[in-house]
């Protein structure tokens, strides 16, 4: 308890990451803001966690060079707990939740499925929840007043987006400039706008040891596997005359019968020394972006636009951190300490550390946006609502009908 009190006292004296500090870092030569957060299983140190599985039901295991407590470097077996892509989606989700709660206002492109008669209601998909952000096929295949989004005047503005003219994306979907985008499905195909990720986060398990998991089921009815059945198209079934009857399958196909105890040594979870989240906001990447207005380019406006993007990225990280690390079933992690940000400003010097709570980060976004607006860099204040095209709705409805009658892919 005393150790925690000492840390809390230390944290209270640490500088807060203000908009002025962020603007100075963006305008100067600093390389990046960085945070490294050690995480432990919520069940306690040494408890098993379950990483995501990939092709053929395997974990992403690899050896990494890790600094040891004595300062030496060792090659340690590690496992990917949450990928860069997954972390980006979680940070976008944190921003979307803040928007829904009225805590922040950001430009959004929204596809509204609420008026469609679908077997499984979809609601809305936004440029923050679509996998490929504003370049996603869901938005591409939606319309404004019967005209495909990318064929409207506002949609065509995205065709001109580039490092030298990031204004169209800033106005409609600034988060695409933070988490990256490739407009490969747009009108220009592979030549579409491409922006690297300026903000990258990843969670890795350090010194990972794979385990095993068991599975079994005792059926209280004791239905035997030899009692073959024939499944009907409507979900019912009939008893097969014998095992060789056409279409005869085991009762386990309809979730009846015992499951023999089994051991899975491929996806049985892992134990770790700890997990570590590493997040980096590249200021160098932001400096490549320019924000002309009506053909006029201004260094002061460029700095203001970059500052807005930096504050959004840091706010997404603060929001996600305070939301917690409940990543998936049996993978709830808990931070060992309050998050701290380092400014990588001068090579060879110890980075200065800052703290940034979500509430302060959200205020920072608002302040940075106001400063950009004063320089003429204004984004869309109301959501741009699209209607899904008839072809998209037809495809979605058919897919849902198939999903309702087939096993999960």
Describe this structure in words.
This protein is an alpha+beta fold. 29% of the residues lie in helices and 26% in strands. The protein is built from eleven helices and 24 strands. A hairpin with a 5-residue loop joins strand 14 (229-231) and strand 15 (237-239). The longest helix has 25 residues, at 299-323. The protein starts with a helix and ends with a helix.
Structural class call reads alpha+beta
What is the mean pLDDT? 92
Low-confidence stretches: 1-12
Helical amount: 25-40%
Shape: flat
SSE topology:
Blueprint: H1 2-13, E1 15-16, H2 19-27, E2 32-41, E3 61-67, E4 73-82, H3 84-100, E5 109-112, E6 124-126, H4 137-140, E7 142-144, E8 147-148, H5 153-156, H6 167-172, H7 175-179, E9 181-182, E10 194-195, E11 199-206, E12 209-210, E13 213-217, E14 229-231, E15 237-239, E16 248-249, E17 259-264, E18 270-271, E19 274-282, H8 283-286, H9 299-323, E20 325-328, E21 331-335, E22 341-344, E23 352-355, H10 358-374, E24 384-388, H11 390-405
């Amino acid at each position: 308890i005393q150790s925690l009190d000492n840390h809390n006292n230390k944290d209270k004296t640490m500088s807060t990451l203000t908009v002025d500090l962020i603007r100075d870092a963006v305008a100067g030569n600093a390389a990046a803001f960085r945070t490294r957060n050690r995480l432990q299983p919520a069940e306690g140190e040494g408890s098993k966690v379950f990483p995501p599985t990939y092709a053929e039901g395997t974990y992403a295991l690899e050896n990494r060079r890790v600094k040891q407590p004595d300062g030496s470097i060792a090659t340690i077996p590690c496992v990917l707990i949450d990928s860069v892509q997954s972390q980006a989606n979680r940070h976008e989700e944190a921003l979307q939740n803040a928007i829904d709660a009225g805590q922040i206002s950001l430009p959004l492109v929204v596809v509204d499925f609420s008026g469609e008669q679908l077997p499984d209601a979809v609601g809305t998909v936004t440029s923050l929840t679509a996998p490929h952000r504003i370049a996603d096929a869901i938005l591409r295949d939606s319309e404004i007043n019967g005209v495909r989004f990318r064929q409207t005047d506002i949609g065509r503005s995205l065709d001109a987006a580039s490092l030298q003219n990031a204004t169209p994306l800033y106005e409609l979907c600034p988060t695409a400039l933070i988490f990256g985008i490739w407009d490969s499905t747009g009108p220009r195909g592979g030549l579409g706008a491409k922006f690297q990720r300026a903000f990258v986060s990843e969670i890795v398990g350090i010194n990972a040891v794979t385990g095993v998991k068991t599975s079994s089921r005792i059926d209280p009815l004791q239905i035997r596997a030899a009692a073959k059945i024939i499944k009907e198209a409507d979900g019912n079934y009939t008893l097969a005359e014998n095992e060789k009857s056409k279409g005869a399958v085991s009762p386990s196909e309809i979730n009846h019968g015992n499951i023999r105890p089994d051991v899975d040594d491929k996806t049985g979870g892992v134990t770790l020394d700890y997990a570590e989240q590493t997040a980096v906001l590249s200021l160098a990447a932001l400096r490549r972006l320019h924000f002309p207005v009506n053909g006029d380019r201004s260094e002061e406006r460029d700095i203001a636009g970059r500052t807005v993007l930096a504050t959004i990225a840091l706010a997404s990280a603060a929001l996600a951190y305070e939301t917690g690390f409940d990543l998936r079933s049996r993978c709830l992690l808990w931070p060992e300490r309050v998050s701290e940000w380092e400014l990588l400003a001068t090579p060879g010097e110890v980075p200065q550390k800052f703290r940034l709570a979500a509430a302060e980060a959200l205020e920072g976004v608002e302040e940075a946006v106001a400063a950009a607006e004063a320089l003429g860099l204004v984004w869309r204040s109301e959501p741009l609502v699209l209607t899904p095209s008839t072809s998209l709705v037809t495809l979605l409805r058919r897919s849902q009908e198939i999903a309702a009658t087939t096993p999960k892919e």
